[in-house]
Write a structure and sequence with these properties.
The chain is α+β, with helices and mostly antiparallel strands. The protein has three helices and four strands, in the order E-E-E-E-H-H-H. It has a single domain, classed as Herpes Virus-1, CATH 3.30.40. It has a two-stranded antiparallel sheet with strand order 1-2. The chain is elongated, with a radius of gyration of 19 Å.
């Protein structure tokens, strides 16, 4: 409990919303890089791995890309067999790249 004469101390900015996390707020820590996030900002279905570890959005994306990379490298020949499905994968990847490029500007 915070005493009335104590000041709120900023710990760091949230890796999701970029707002400050102050000492009395509930927060979680990325199990890979240690980034802090407001507990209310995370979606556990998206940012929690199969072992129950919380990941920041960056590390969650890297983990998903590692998984995706394994699938593509293992099954790339079978994915090319169905041209409609192959085109769908390529289009979705283009959309992800476009989204990331828009956010960066």
């Amino acid at each position: 409990m915070l005493l009335s004469n104590e000041k709120k101390r900023v710990i760091v900015k949230c890796a999701i919303c970029n707002r400050e996390i102050v000492n009395e707020e509930r927060y979680v820590k990325c199990s890979i890089c240690g980034a802090l996030m407001h507990e209310d900002c995370i979606d556990r279905e998206v940012l929690e791995d199969s072992e129950g570890n919380i990941l920041c959005p960056y590390d969650a994306v890297l983990a998903a890309l590692d998984w995706f990379d394994t699938i593509i490298n293992t099954y790339h020949a079978s994915l090319k067999v169905d041209s409609e499905k192959h085109s769908d994968i390529i289009e979705r990847l283009k959309n992800y790249i476009k989204l990331l490029e828009e956010e960066a500007t």
